[in-house]
Amino acid sequence: MDFSNFNEYKIFSETRFRTPLRIERQIGLWVDRIGEAEREFQLPSALRKLGQYAIVFIEQGDGYFIHPAYGQVRITNGNAILLFPDEPTAYYPSQKWYEKYIVWNGPESVKLTELGYLNKSSVVIDDDIGIFADSHAKLKKIITNEDKAAIFERKNIVTNLILEIFKLSKPKEKYQQWEGKIKAVISWLSSNYSSDISVSTLAQKYNFSESNFRRYFKQYTGRSPREFINSLRISKAKSLLKEGMSIKEVASVIGFDDIFYFMRLFKKATGISCGNFRKE
Predict the structure, then answer these.
(1) Distance CA 140, CA 178 (A)
(2) Most exposed: 14, 196, 198, 203, by fewest CB within 10 Å?
(3) pLDDT tens, 169-217?
(4) 128: which DSSP letter?
């Protein structure tokens, strides 16, 4: 089967879903199912939209992963395939392989994708330390339990797995290089949040281009540099207001020349006005 032109081939949507419990919906992320299988060579007849998130870990063997953006990608033992709900894909062994898989869903997964923890440009991941197999083993022990502790533990296992996917999907040397610099930026900002420094000047200070600085900073913190600075300022403003400092003085101390802008920003961030916050 030639997968070079994806538009020529049938795409079907998976219809097998477990109905999550009410508490699972409330906590925002649940495990749909886990499993393991020995799969023999068979070319896929169509591409599948899973409708959920999944990680498929190849424990033994090798084969191919079919993806609309990357074509046919060779995979081997120790690789894991990351599947997204809306992407049509297929995968199969060249002869035979042994796989383990974890399927999950929920609005928190969508949010983590938006924040970059699950990256659609990193769908084949190397795992040479057994993270996926370990997560699968932990889930296997509690997958049928429906008590609150087990439900929450399953969520935690998958959340930790997503964090490890995020770490493993980064080119290690490059990631560690800019990660260290972003940590240095955060340390500096924690002591200099009131400084009137522009994002472009901050980028130059730590030898970034402005575009890369903005991208790496948001990738690491989940927020833009300006959003992060303002969050530090608002946090300090809360402490100063509770200590009895006037709103005008607080605005000045934390780096706002415009008191009215500060008041609007404070209310937007906290949901309460500066005056009412002081009275609480």
Answers:
(1) 37
(2) 196
(3) 765 545 556 778 888 899 999 889 888 888 999 888 888 888 888 888 8
(4) S
> Considering the domain 6-168 in this protein, what is its CATH number?
2.60.120.280
CA 122 remoteness from chain centre: 12
Structural domain spans, the chain: 6-168, 174-279
Quickly tell me which residue has 């200099």 as its tokens: 192
Cα separation, 170 vs 164, in Å, equals 10
- Looking at the structure, give the CATH architecture of the domain made up of residues 174-279: Orthogonal Bundle (1.10)
Chain position carrying tokens 């600075």:
229
CA distances from 81 to 2, 141, 165, 248 (A): 20, 23, 10, 54
Contacts for 187-196: CB closer than 8 Å, 24+ residues apart: 189/228, 189/229, 189/232, 190/232, 193/229, 193/232, 193/233, 193/236, 193/254, 193/255, 194/233, 194/253, 194/254, 194/255, 195/255, 196/255
Nearest-angstrom CA–CA distance, 21 and 28:
11
Which whole number is the average pLDDT over 35-62? 93
